[in-house]
């Protein structure tokens, strides 16, 4: 059997939050810790994806370091996992261009994610309107091709992502097929999506997923938030005025989100329903205090490690890890690109 190559990415668009942690980063660390020695793991901080929306340069640099510190704080080990900034490996953009020359515009225009980003900026029926098309940035439209390049560059066999990314993975498989049809079997299609079932919702709009792209910082709990900040955010979280605590995601999305988060962390492995049962006679204020304590304690060791890394960085610790990671990633990318350039005639 072929060795496993695992690739995944996170955008440096803010300090990672509970959704990133429970839906992705925790799984990345587990995959690393359970991997056989022949398994390769590549985890990228995808800064080129972050600039599909306008970024302040100093803030982007800060978010990149904070994201790198988070990956280390959750237990990724640079000796075992290749951790790197996407832009430090220029082959990502080279392969993206090459894939663009065989990829189908029709498939790309069926991707829902850019449509929803347009919807956020009030461009609902975007594709139908000429003026909306004029404002639509090419990079926001074509970034699934970059994402396909990220994966195919390393011959990734396994890609751990949330279910929101399933469509993009299917697109990456199509990109490989379309390239291989023209040029021969060079690119490896990722076989398996390792999807985490854990989904964390926004504290402010609990029918939307918690995301770094939401303006309001109170909508998410960052992995470096202390107990007091977590308490403030949970106190302000949108719940409801129904008496008692019960798990009912349809009718009580706010309360159910807190119960789900508690169950993901629960050391006794209790389900959200079981936790609801245990909390059922609490007032909302008491329940929120219980949730705050549970979540804050569960994040404590990650938060402490994050703070140690960020506070003791005079020695270029993070820069050295990023450089070493990108050198390793580049050596591997070179192998794919040599074969790709050869069959094309470049
Ligand atoms: P964000 O939407 O916060 O900017 P990213 O696009 O950087 O997140 O995604 C990084 C990883 O975190 C992806 O694997 C994604 O599926 C996962 N993820 C993001 N938000 C959530 C969430 N609210 N619940 C579960 N997983 C999430
Ligand atoms: Na996102």
UniProtKB/TrEMBL annotation:
Q: Name one GO molecular function term.
A: tryptophan-tRNA ligase activity
Which transformation does this protein catalyse, written as a reaction?
Answer: tRNA(Trp) + L-tryptophan + ATP = L-tryptophyl-tRNA(Trp) + AMP + diphosphate + H(+)
The alphabetized list of GO BP terms reads:
mitochondrial tryptophanyl-tRNA aminoacylation
The family database entries (PROSITE patterns) matched by this protein are listed as: AA_TRNA_LIGASE_I (PS00178)
**Per the annotation, which location comes first and is thus the protein's main one?**
mitochondrion
Question: To which protein family does this belong?
Answer: Belongs to the class-I aminoacyl-tRNA synthetase family.
Compartment(s) of residence? Mitochondrion matrix
Q: Name one Pfam family in it.
A: tRNA-synt_1b
PANTHER family according to UniProt: TRYPTOPHAN--TRNA LIGASE, MITOCHONDRIAL
Record's keyword annotation contains ATP-binding: yes
Q: EC number(s)?
A: 6.1.1.2
Q: Does the keyword rRNA processing apply?
A: no
The protein in question is named Tryptophan--tRNA ligase, mitochondrial
State the SUPFAM superfamilies in the record. Answer: Nucleotidylyl transferase
TM region(s), chain numbering = none
Q: What InterPro entries has UniProt attached to this entry?
A: aa-tRNA-synth_I_CS (IPR001412), aa-tRNA-synth_Ic (IPR002305), Rossmann-like_a/b/a_fold (IPR014729), Trp-tRNA-ligase (IPR002306), Trp-tRNA-ligase_bac-type (IPR024109), Trp-tRNA_synthetase (IPR050203)
Under NCBIfam families, the record lists: trpS
Q: Identify one Gene Ontology CC term for this UniProt entry.
A: mitochondrial matrix
Q: Which UniProt keywords apply?
A: Aminoacyl-tRNA synthetase, ATP-binding, Ligase, Nucleotide-binding, Protein biosynthesis
């Amino acid at each position: 059997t072929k060795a496993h190559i695992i690739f995944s990415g996170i955008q440096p668009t803010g300090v990672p939050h509970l959704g990133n942690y429970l839906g992705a980063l925790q799984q990345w660390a587990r995959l690393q810790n359970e991997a056989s020695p022949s398994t390769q793991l590549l985890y990228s901080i995808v800064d080129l994806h972050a600039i599909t929306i306008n970024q302040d340069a100093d803030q982007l640099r800060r978010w990149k370091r904070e994201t790198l510190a988070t990956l280390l704080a959750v237990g990724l080990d640079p000796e075992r996992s290749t951790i790197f900034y996407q832009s430090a490996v220029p082959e990502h953009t080279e392969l993206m261009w090459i894939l663009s020359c065989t990829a189908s515009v029709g498939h790309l225009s069926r991707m829902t994610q850019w449509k929803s980003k347009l919807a956020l900026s009030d461009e609902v029926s975007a594709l139908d309107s000429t003026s909306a098309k004029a404002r639509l940035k090419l990079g926001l439209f074509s970034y699934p091709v970059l994402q396909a390049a990220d994966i195919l560059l390393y011959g990734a066999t396994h890609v751990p992502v949330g279910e929101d990314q399933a469509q993009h993975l299917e697109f990456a498989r199509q990109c490989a097929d379309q390239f291989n049809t023209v040029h021969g079997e060079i690119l490896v299609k990722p076989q398996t999506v390792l999807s985490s079932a854990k989904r964390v919702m926004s504290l402010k709009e609990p029918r939307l997923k918690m995301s770094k792209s939401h303006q309001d910082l109170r909508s998410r709990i960052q992995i470096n938030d202390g107990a007091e900040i977590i308490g403030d955010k949970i106190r302000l979280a949108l719940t409801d005025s129904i008496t008692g605590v019960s798990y009912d995601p349809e009718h009580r999305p706010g309360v159910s989100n807190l119960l789900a988060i508690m169950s993901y962390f629960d050391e006794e492995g209790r389900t959200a329903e079981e936790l609801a049962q245990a909390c059922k006679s609490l007032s909302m204020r008491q329940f929120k205090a219980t949730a705050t304590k549970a979540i804050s304690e569960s994040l404590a060791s990650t938060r402490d490690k994050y703070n140690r890394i960020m506070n003791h960085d005079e020695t270029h610790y993070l820069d050295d890890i990023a450089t070493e990671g990108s050198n390793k990633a580049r050596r591997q990318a070179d192998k794919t690109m040599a074969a790709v350039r050869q069959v094309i005639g470049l």
